[in-house]
């Protein structure tokens, strides 16, 4: 291991540190807001069932004028803290991928690590898989 952190590979940095992933679900605007919120909460529960360190509310966004409740937009924004062990990041991404595949709505999900964001929406399964695989590789050094 090098003393200079800037020469470490993403895999070395991953092994040295826990990571935080900002996950934002932009709900399908044509979907009933309550149904969308239930779906976002189900995703959050599925993520909490993974071997993650924590799942906490993400940064607030300004809700649209028609939104009910104090923070309707941020219902889908969470910060997930991951340990470096056990392929948890890959499991997180797979959980999001599966959730999107099960939904007939046009949701968008973005994952951000250290300013690097991937946004998933109406891509084909193959396109989504290729994008996600490249993103996982960038942040773990594995495939």
Please tell me about this protein's structure.
The protein is of the alpha+beta class and 143 residues long. The protein contains four helices and five strands; from the N terminus they run H-E-H-E-E-H-E-E-H. It has helices at 10-16, 33-48, 88-102, 125-140, and strands spanning 19-26, 54-57, 77-82, 108-113, 116-120. It has a five-stranded antiparallel sheet, covered by helices on one side. Helix 3 runs antiparallel to helix 4. The model is unreliable at 1-6, 8-15 and 61-74 (pLDDT under 50).
Q: Please tally the helical runs, counting DSSP H or I stretches of 4 or more residues.
A: 4
Mind describing the biggest β-sheet?
A: 5 strands, antiparallel
Strand numbers in spatial order across the main sheet: 2-3-1-4-5
Say how many strands there are: 5
Helix-and-strand structural type: alpha+beta
Average pLDDT over all residues: 75
Q: Span between N and C termini?
A: 22 Å
In one word, what is the shape?
Answer: globular
How much helical structure, as a percent, in the residues?
25-40%
Beta-strand residue percentage: 15-25%
The poorly predicted ranges are: 1-6, 8-15, 61-74
Question: Secondary-structure element order, as H and E?
Answer: HEHEEHEEH
Q: What is the CA-atom radius of gyration, in angstroms?
A: 16 Å
